[in-house]
Design a protein that fits this description.
Number of strands: 15
Strand content: 25-35%
Largest sheet: 15 strands, mixed
CATH architecture of the largest domain: 2-Layer Sandwich
CATH topology of the largest domain: Endonuclease, Chain A
Radius of gyration: 21 Å
Number of domains: 2
Shape: globular
Strand order of the largest sheet: 4-3-2-5-6-7-1-8-14-13-12-9-10-11-15
CATH class of the largest domain: Alpha Beta
Distance between the termini: 25 Å
Length: 384
């Protein structure tokens, strides 16, 4: 992990801010566009991004699109053909071939959402290529975050994106397109913000994101505010939160109220009583689908990215977060999270949770046990 000063960081809240900024950057590209995403949905938003990529390729820009083989398993073949016909290089990370076979390696997904344009501008966050309104029935617009970055941090982000592309390309027999040399990264000072780029992979960066969270929580003196879509932390993470609360730190969790994975939410709720008994606040977001993976600690440490705080993100998937140091960005993100809590969430009270019927508690613990069973199959049950 390398903290780099002199960056310009812009917080983007939801697709309403993210997609116009992304498309504007693609339309300004002169040399290269690299885009990675877990989901690429061919809805109105997805097609607007497709059109921007095609326009870039038509100008002679090298365009490389990397999609996850599970998250984008329904990506239309006709659309893939259109992209390739336009000169866009398209690859899938661990393409799904057998629908009903469950193997451990299938859980090792490309979950990060990254874009790098001309090795000069980068986007990092949790927003897939999908319209915010394209969500579960009855929900409002999905709530999520990304950041736009310029500056020295590109020296870390661009090589990471390029390296994974090369790895996937060489892993696919029969695909040996021309290997273009890397671009010169533009690292001129874009601002005054200090940033760290964190990734999770299965080699040298297995626990970087988790360790960054733990270090910040253990150093907290005033407040830990975490918004996370799929929150099922392991023992060390839970203990760090409890220890912080015991020191008098205000610990606040903003979690999903509406979810597309009900059994997982039940497993998460099995931990509510433990957190509430240890003076940790829990707020469930019901206004829409909470998809955020963000946190602010003590008003000067903030992170945005793709990593959930669960065993699948922290131990299996490829993820990417940025940590931004300093009060300016942290204040903006904290204000956005507090607004979301105020307008779309309700607090889970300790005395109310105690009155939950026994059968509801049983279902939650059964779901938690199911997750542990799956982790046991993966050889990781002791971590939960």
């Amino acid at each position: 992990m390398t903290r780099r000063a002199g960056n310009r960081v812009t917080l983007l809240t939801g697709g309403e801010q993210y997609f116009p900024a992304l498309i504007e950057a693609i339309d300004a590209a002169r040399l290269e566009v690299r885009l990675e995403t877990y989901i690429f949905e061919p809805d109105a938003t997805g097609m607007a991004v497709v059109d921007a990529l095609v326009r870039a390729a038509g100008r002679g820009v090298r365009v490389k699109l990397l999609l996850d083989g599970f998250g984008a398993r329904a990506f239309p073949a006709a659309l893939a053909a259109r992209l390739r016909a336009a000169g866009i290089a398209l690859l899938f990370y661990r393409r799904e071939l057998a629908t009903f076979k469950l193997r451990k390696h299938r859980l090792r997904r490309l979950h990060r959402k990254l874009a790098v344009i001309d090795a000069r501008v980068a986007f990092v966050g949790g927003i897939n290529i999908i319209d915010d309104s394209n969500t579960m029935p009855g929900a409002g617009r999905r709530h999520d975050y990304a950041v736009r970055l310029e500056g020295p941090i590109l020296a870390d982000i661009y090589p990471a994106v390029r390296r994974l592309w090369l790895l996937v390309r060489w892993s696919q027999i029969g695909r040996r397109p021309r290997r273009w040399p890397p671009l010169a990264v533009t690292t001129a000072a874009g601002g005054d913000q200090e940033v760290d780029f964190l990734r999770r992979d299965n080699l040298r960066h297995r626990r970087d994101i988790e360790e960054a969270y733990l270090a910040a929580i253990r150093a907290a003196r005033e407040e830990v505010l975490i918004a996370n879509a799929y929150f099922l932390p392991g023992r060390r993470f839970r203990q760090a939160l409890v220890d912080a609360a015991a020191r008098g730190v205000r610990v606040v969790l903003l979690l999903q109220g509406r979810t597309d994975h009900p059994w997982f939410q039940l497993a998460v709720r099995a931990l509510y009583r433990y957190f509430l008994e240890n003076r940790i606040e829990i707020h469930e977001f019901h206004a829409s689908e909470l998809h955020a993976k963000a946190a602010v600690i003590d008003g000067n440490w903030a992170t945005v990215g793709s990593s959930n705080i669960d065993p699948f993100s922290l131990l299996l998937a490829r993820e990417a977060n940025v940590v931004v140091y300093g009060t300016v960005f942290a204040a903006a993100l904290r204000a956005s999270l507090l607004d979301a809590m105020k307008d779309g969430a309700h607090a889970i009270r300790r005395h109310d949770w105690r009155r939950i019927p026994w059968y509801a508690r049983f279902v939650s613990w059964a779901s938690y046990g199911l997750v542990r069973l799956l982790l046991g199959w993966l050889g990781m049950a002791r971590l939960l």
